[in-house]
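hey so u asked for the seq, here:
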Amino acid sequence: MKFRNIVFIVLPLLLSGCSACSQPEEESFNPAGETFRNLNQAGLSYGPSKVWFGKDGTYVLEDHTASAVTEYTGAWSVSENVVTLDAPEKKIIFEAQEDGTLVLKTGLSGSASDDVFTAGDLPQSTPSAPPAETPPAGKETAAPASSEPEAQEYAYHNASQANPFGKSFLELYDDGTFSFTEVAGMGAVQIKGLYGQEGNTLLFSNFDAPLYDNKGNPVYNFEMDIYDEETLILRKDLSESRYGDVFTLSGTIPAGYTDPSPKEVLTTTVWKFTPEGSAGVPAGLEPNVIFDADGTFVLTENCYSGMGQFKGWYEKTSTGYICHVQDASSMQGYAGGDVTLITFVMKDDHTLLLKTDLCMSRTDNEFILQ
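ran it, structure tokens below
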């Protein structure tokens, strides 16, 4: 079986040169008058995030998620290949590439860091069916419809799931669509959407119904690694299926199988705010963040006239932590009270750098492991 690849078509943006000098110099990137759309969200039913750059130096950025659109407005500026958007309580950074695209460097609710924005056309959202082929031995195929044959189907069952009433299963079709049925006890929930392949990973998105993880948080996309043509490895906790679960065509785990990238076991850690000049912060009133082993976090912030908290769940990545804020009620009325995503980057094994402006805590302030 050949997994379907995502193909992105990018039209280069023409850059104009400077002729005002006797020796021509290359002009800085200038997006004025252009609208750039998020290539990584191409084909989503709720549309891609986009940013418009006005010739008057203002911008409008619409950040799309499955359930909401967040709009940012303000002034934009460019220095060489770095485009900066001034937004309330933060700066949104893009890097201009030689092909005329912009690469987002500030994570937002819908758009992730390193997402690519283009002023060119986006790929068509409706995938075309590949030529018919004979399925490999052991593969399940869908019965043909009365008028047109259905897309070829491959069904993978969760071999790691211990449920006497049935196992969750994933059906892949060669037209780029999928159906995922999450089995819980004697019940089940089904979603359908689109999938594609990047490297050795399958990406699933554009769901037609809500999907949640085991903590009740909404899931907008998930991934599976390709172990071989008959084995996929889930890389996200879902409502019943878990990170590292093995999905196979046979419904059994292959003999001798070991997870090539097992999930890191989380431990509770406490980090305390220690920026330059922190001697002016009274002992016990320093901002701090606790990452709990259960996957939740609490960030206690000094608001100068009191203390507030951000609470939610976090992702531990290869570069640091991404905190998804679910409760900031005690921060209302203070700077940072509307923040929904807080990012930390590892400086070293004992130091985190905050990458989101809050109240007392600002971008690049250090938090030290206690």
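The first strand starts at residue 35 and ends at 38. The CA atoms of residues 106 and 114 lie 8 Å apart.
lmk if thats what u needed
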